[in-house]
Amino acid sequence: MLCTSFDALKPLLFNLPSVQQHLQSIVDGHATLSERLTQLTTENGAPNEIASISRRLAKVAALTEVIHARDKALEAIAELQDMLKTEEDSELRELAASDLAQEQTQLQELEQELLQALVPEDTADEASAVVELRAGTGGREAALFAHDLKLMYQGLAQQQRWSFKVLDEQATDDGGLREASLSISGSGVFGMLKFESGVHRVQRIPTTETAGRIHTSTATVAVLPEPTDVEVEVLDKDIHVETYRAGGAGGQHVNTTDSAVRLTHLPTGTVVACQTERSQHKLEHIVSTRVAIDQCVLFNRVHHLVQNKAAAMKVLKARIFAQVRAKQEEERRAARREQISTTPGERSDRIRTYNMPQDRVTDHRIKASLNNVETLLKGISLPELIVQLQQFDNSQRLADLFGDEVHLSSSGSESN
What we know:
Layout: H1 6-13, H2 17-42, H3 47-86, H4 90-118, E1 129-135, H5 140-160, E2 163-171, E3 177-185, H6 189-193, E4 198-204, E5 215-225, E6 239-244, E7 260-265, E8 270-274, H7 280-284, H8 290-339, E9 350-355, E10 360-363, E11 368-371, H9 373-377, H10 382-401, H11 403-415
Parallel strand pairs: 4-9
Antiparallel strand pairs: 1-3, 1-5, 2-3, 4-5, 6-7, 7-8, 9-10, 10-11
Domain Prokaryotic-type class I peptide chain release factors: 245-261
Family: Belongs to the prokaryotic/mitochondrial release factor family.
GO molecular function: translation release factor activity
């Protein structure tokens, strides 16, 4: 069984030969770069090469300092422990014990910093994200729960000062959501929200339930990194565009013109539809002649087609980018599965349960629970849960990086 927390990994990782070699390679690389930079500066080397080496040196300089500081802390701890064993003077022993506690605290902080630096970087973490919500099993309650999740992410976006925009949504008559696509923009959005992907389950008593029975319903969340144009190129010739009449909850909100858009990416078969912008009836109220109304509706239809196509294209690019990332991730993990067996079905799609009667939220991936469901659904306490998920993810990334040795070491420690 692999370790699932940074604290559990610490005593294992820093004693592994591969980790020690990795840290030494960082120190050696820093020394080599420093020597090369000094040589180029003395010999008036090429400015481009000097700039390149300076950038590389800056990346490893701070980490090298932390490695050296950890080495010094280990030496100090060893000396103080020897002193406690051999020193007979009680006053000196008391001072040594105090210094030892300080050094051990500093060592923990330094090793925590090193662990963070060792975690393989996910280049998409700093990207904005497209969040897709869909009501799952549970009918009306599932749609209402999907709407609750939308408000949760909207609250989190406001708290984090991110930009929040609804790209597309299909609402129900009673305020629920059949599905929705959200654009959340800002620094580090995907790095925080990527752990929300999966099936969310809610247990509560519906307002229409007269017998007080608890109903269970679900909603699915998909979080996709929003790629830049450099990362994903979608050619016009690869896109099939269709327009159709947007559907709504019924009545006056149904669009009678072809303002909804469906895009199909022919190479991958990916399909995205968008019909949010459908408000030409609003403009009809502010014009007084039939000709003006006809012109207004025509302009509004074209305007909405452009808006919906742009929104659909944003979602389409995010889905294609996610497919590329998923393929790369699967290839990377395939080698690990050949060496380390896992229990079938160990990773359930159901990631979190919101238990309203017990006022408790449980994340099944890390077996962590929080009280006050309402606070979480407002997005207020969601960062607290995300931090725990990030730490769990970091430990798994480190286990993948140094997998064999971590697996063997943890097995050995469990048997002792």
